[in-house]
Specification:
The protein has 31 helices and four strands. It is mostly helical. The strands form two sheets. It has a two-stranded antiparallel sheet with strand order 1-2. Strands 3-4 form a two-stranded antiparallel ribbon. A hairpin with a 5-residue loop joins strand 1 and strand 2 (182-183). It is globular, with a radius of gyration of 26 Å.
Length: 672
């Protein structure tokens, strides 16, 4: 990937100037928090831990920051690849239970990890090829509704040539307002991120996200060890009056003490890693805390311990509290644009666009579910098979109904919660005052909003039905393992259980953004979809990689289907993987200029040709100005050429990109 970066190394466009500015500012800062290069006199108000890590490596290596920037992108690519490989390898190897003897086979199957998580793109790349060739009717492209694709040029060839055609793959979800006007939604995935080359927090956090998932797997594998002594009574002695009144509190205190005495190192490592996610890319912290806690809960429940729920609460507190305290200095000075959860009334993701994004993963995970259900049926004695399907459907019905009704209740709770605050009431009044909304609901107010939201979802129910079926099926498989006894410590049980868990969480993340979004400066669900889909991609990629092994390498497909079914499945699987590979195979050469230029890893070198005097001035400032002396530079809007001297030197200017400062701080008070 360093070679790819060498052919398009420019630290220009998108948010690269912001990122090199943060890196240079940290290198120059004399104290922490580091100074903000685009708002003199103030500290960075952003999750900057990833930039700090890269700044440390820059210091140690002694290379210029403009070179370190591209080396960091290559490093993150490598760490993400090895992290995905390692996690899938351990899932495969523990499932086999024969690490040494079948090590080579495990290595080969583990290659699906980086392939699915990092290398493949979504399926939009294939439709770029079909469109540029001139295939497909105007009606089809209008139905697919990928923003900008129908207007893209056709050249009769199989390779798109319009500038940055690969950008559209990160915008396949096309929201529209009540008048049908496009509303931007970001749905990046790792291959796009590395192709773009932005050193943004969601990229900086990727290796650590995979580490957090690996730690969650460890928690599940060690289920028989965690809280093993919880059934023991507390050492006898005088009890406080308060615990006589609330005996559950006395038991909880005993368990908390026991957990720290026996697992202090494990808890601190979990807290250290999960807490770092809050500092690296704050959105990731609650998501992966949920995964780790859920892994603990599943492990305890599978051990059939009667106190599994309370022990999970103790574990969650034991990890979450130190995870925040370890990084408390960051939170004390941190401001954010986040303003709570808001209900989503009028946007519904269309199923074709969802499958454009996640199609291959959905196919493999759904196939894994079907295979496991058939295996469960085949394992029963003949006389018990008659009632299997009735029991299966009944077990599926309860979570399925909750998954259909629950999100609507969450949206209702979001409405009620925003009505409790003045800002929330102002938000609702703004929605109700919109003429387009009035035309839909008249004077019905909030009940009319909820009614219209329900009608829109009933008119386009396919995404909800698909996700409800998938999540309910995965929960059924988890519950079934609970009923079979305390076997979670067996690798053949733990590996599939972990995959069911992360797949269910991934699908839940993509379901959540259909009902609520997190308030920010944009006022839409754009960023919420971006952050949730990104984590969902990583978890689905890992789950699909293991699912590929489980279906093919374990011979599960051979035991559960006819030869014809196996052939059809293999063909479909191969086609979907090849469709995903179309994106990197075509987009990488396009972004790298077909590898025809002069390679360099210096991201500032391009200034020598287009702005030689500015380049010389920046080099002089880098060589002759120490510390964090202030400079005066023209301000400008986001994504402009303004404030590039402060970005490349790290010297703070009065004000850089004004809207970005507003985003980072959630207000414009300091700038005013």
């Amino acid at each position: 990937w360093a070679l790819v970066r060498a052919y398009n190394p420019e630290i220009a466009a998108t948010e690269k100037p912001m990122e090199i500015g943060f890196l240079n500012a940290i290198l120059r800062s004399e104290r922490f928090p580091p100074h903000d290069p685009w708002l003199s006199g103030f500290a960075i108000s952003y999750y900057y831990f990833g930039y700090l890590l890269m700044a440390i490596l820059t210091k140690l290596s002694g290379v210029p920051a403009s070179v370190a920037f591209n080396l960091a992108i290559a490093l993150l690519f490598a760490l993400t690849a090895t992290g995905a490989f390692s996690l899938v390898y351990n899932l495969v190897a523990t499932d086999k239970g024969r690490r040494v003897r079948e090590g080579l086979s495990s290595i080969l199957w583990a290659l699906f990890g980086p392939l699915f998580v990092l290398i493949v793109g979504n399926l939009e790349g294939v439709f770029e090829v079909l469109h540029t060739k001139g295939l497909g009717s105007p009606g089809f492209w209008k139905w697919l509704d990928v923003h900008g694709l129908i207007e893209a040029p056709t050249n009769g060839r199989w390779i798109p040539t319009d500038m940055w055609w690969w950008w559209r793959a990160s915008r396949v979800v096309n929201d529209r307002d009540l008048q049908g006007v496009h509303m931007e939604v970001i749905d990046e995935f790792p291959q796009f991120s590395f192709l773009l080359g932005d050193m943004h927090p969601h990229v900086l956090a990727l290796p650590f996200v995979l580490l957090a998932l690996a730690l969650a797997l460890n928690v599940l594998l060690a289920a028989h060890m965690w809280m093993a002594d919880m059934s023991k009574e507390r050492v006898s002695g005088p009890k406080k009056v308060v615990t006589d009144q609330w005996p559950w509190l006395d038991r909880m205190q005993h368990w908390l003490s026991s957990m720290w005495q026996n697992h202090a190192f494990d808890i601190l490592m979990l807290a250290f890693c999960l807490g770092a996610l809050g500092f690296l890319n704050t959105w990731d912290f609650p998501i992966h805390l949920l995964v780790v806690v859920a892994a603990f809960l599943i492990g305890q429940r599978a051990q059939q311990r009667s106190y599994w729920l309370m022990s999970t609460v103790v574990f969650a507190l034991s990890v979450a509290v130190p995870a925040v305290l370890l990084y408390l200095p960051f939170y004390l000075g941190f401001q954010s644009q986040a303003g709570g959860a808001l209900p989503l009334f009028f946007n519904v993701t269309r199923l074709p666009q969802y499958l454009l994004m996640f199609g291959p993963f959905v196919f493999v995970i759904a196939s894994l579910v079907v295979v496991q259900v058939i295996r469960a049926l085949a394992s029963l004695p003949g006389e018990e098979r008659h009632g299997f399907w009735r029991g299966f459907l009944l077990d599926l019905l309860n979570p399925f109904l909750w998954l259909l009704i629950g999100p609507l209740l969450v949206m209702l709770l979001a409405v009620l919660s925003v009505m409790l605050t003045s800002a929330g009431r102002q938000f609702l009044q703004g929605v109700l005052a919109d003429d387009r909304v009035k035309a839909l609901i008249g004077s019905m107010g909030v009940p009319g909003l909820l009614r219209q939201a329900l009608l829109m979802r009933l008119a386009n129910p396919w995404i909800f039905l698909l996700l409800a079926v998938l999540i309910a099926s995965l929960l059924y498989l988890i519950q079934r393992s609970w009923k079979q006894g305390p076997q979670v410590s067996s690798p053949t049980e733990a590996a599939p259980l972990f995959v069911y868990l992360i797949a269910a969480v991934a699908f839940l993340l993509t379901l959540a953004v259909e009902f609520v979004y997190l308030r920010d400066s944009f006022g839409t669900r754009m960023n919420t979809v971006f952050k949730f889909y990104y984590q969902a991609w990583v978890m689905m990629g890992v789950a699909a990689a293991f699912g590929s092994y489980y279906i093919l390498g374990r011979g599960s497909l051979s035991r559960t289907g006819s030869g014809f079914v196996r052939s059809i499945w293999l063909v479909a699987f191969a086609i979907l993987v090849l469709m995903g590979m179309a994106y990197p195979l075509l987009a990488i050469p396009n972004k790298a200029g077909d590898f025809q230029g002069r390679p360099t890893l210096d991201g500032m070198a391009f200034l020598q040709n287009i702005r030689p005097d500015d380049y010389a001035a920046i080099k002089w400032l880098q060589a002759n100005v120490s510390g964090s002396a202030h400079i005066v530079e023209a301000t400008g809007g986001s994504y402009s050429d303004a404030a590039f001297v402060s970005a490349f030197t790290g010297l703070p200017t009065i004000l850089g990109w004004d809207f970005h400062e507003h985003q980072w701080r959630g207000n414009s008070i300091e700038a005013n």
